[in-house]
Amino acid sequence: MPVGLYMDVHVPQAVTTQLRARQVDVVTAQEDGTTLTPDDRLLERVTELGRVLFTQDVRFKAMADQWNRDGRPFSGLVFGHQMGGTIGQFVQDLELIAKATDPGEWANSVERVPFPR
Question: How far is Cα of residue 83 from the mean position of the Cα atoms in its chain?
C-alpha cells in the first residue's frame, strides 16, 4: 500500500507539484487548513490521517525525536533541511518513500532526506 505524504506549510510548492506529476498521494497543510496549527497538533493531525509528514523545520524534527523517545505514537516524519538538498533530490527520495514503503513501516520513525548517494 503506498504511503500518503503530508507537506508542512514551508515546503516549496514545486516539491508537491512534482510529486503529484509522479502520481504520489500528497496533501498540503494549506489544503488541509492547518497552516497556523501548532507543530504538536499538526503531528497529531497527520497521524489521524495516516500520512507521513515532510518538513523542513528543524524544530519540528526535534519535537518528533522527543515524541519518539517518550513513546508517543505518530505516523512518521521525514526531515529535509532547506539547504541540505535540491528540490529534485527531495522529490526523488519522497517518491521512493511513497511508492516503495508501507505506512506501517513509518510508525514512530524520523528519517532525513536526501538519502546518501
Answer: 17
CB-CB contact of 31 with 110 (8 Å): no
Q: Per residue in 73-94, pLDDT tens?
A: 999 999 999 888 999 999 999 9
Domain edges within the chain:
5-112
Sheet with 26-28: list strands edge to edge.
Answer: 26-28, 5-7, 52-55, 77-79, 110-112
Joined together, the cell numbers standing for residue 56 give 523542513
Residues near 23 by beta carbon (within 8 Å), at least 6 away in sequence: none
DSSP characters for 87-107? Answer: HHHHHHHHHHHHHHS-GGGGT
- Average of pLDDT values for 55-61? 95
